[in-house]
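Issue: ligand-bound run for flavin mononucleotide - logging full I/O for the record.

Environment: standard queue, default settings, no custom constraints.

Inputs:
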Amino acid sequence: MTGIVVFVDSRGGNTRKIAEVIAAEAGTAVGDITDSLPDTAKLVFLGSGTYGGAPGIGMMKFVTDNDFSGRNVAVFGTSMSPGGAQKMVAAMVDALKRKGATVLGTFDCRGKFLLFRRGHPDETDLGNARAFARDMISKH
Ligand SMILES: Cc1cc2nc3c(=O)[nH]c(=O)nc-3n(C[C@H](O)[C@H](O)[C@H](O)COP(=O)(O)O)c2cc1C
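Outputs:
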């Protein structure tokens, strides 16, 4: 599908797993957040892990450095605690709206951290991410 891009800030690989299933569903590859947002992007999936309650520094730089006006964005994230990613995703949504984005929806799930949430994201999480991707693609 053209016009769909996926970018992720993932230090440990958990959120990257989510990004990979979303990209597969969209028929694209996960982009590099040190690149610019392509002009042709109509639907932008953006994801991050939660680090000290916040999105990754690289993701926030990507949001600050690019123009999101007229673009649909879908935001996803992982965290050890449920509230962690919800707050982090809300911060990304706020920043994106300030940059002119239309936010279509959000998704979050747990990601393993040390001995906590082992095995996550698991098959159920990945299936939910796939459904999220399909829903966002149908809406854009
Ligand atoms: C430095 C650091 C800080 C973290 N801070 C939080 C936090 O504030 N709240 C939370 O729920 N999880 C926190 N976590 C857990 C991660 O958000 C979780 O493991 C997430 O899945 C990491 O995603 P990633 O593997 O894509 O980097 C932290 C993890 C690291 C490494």
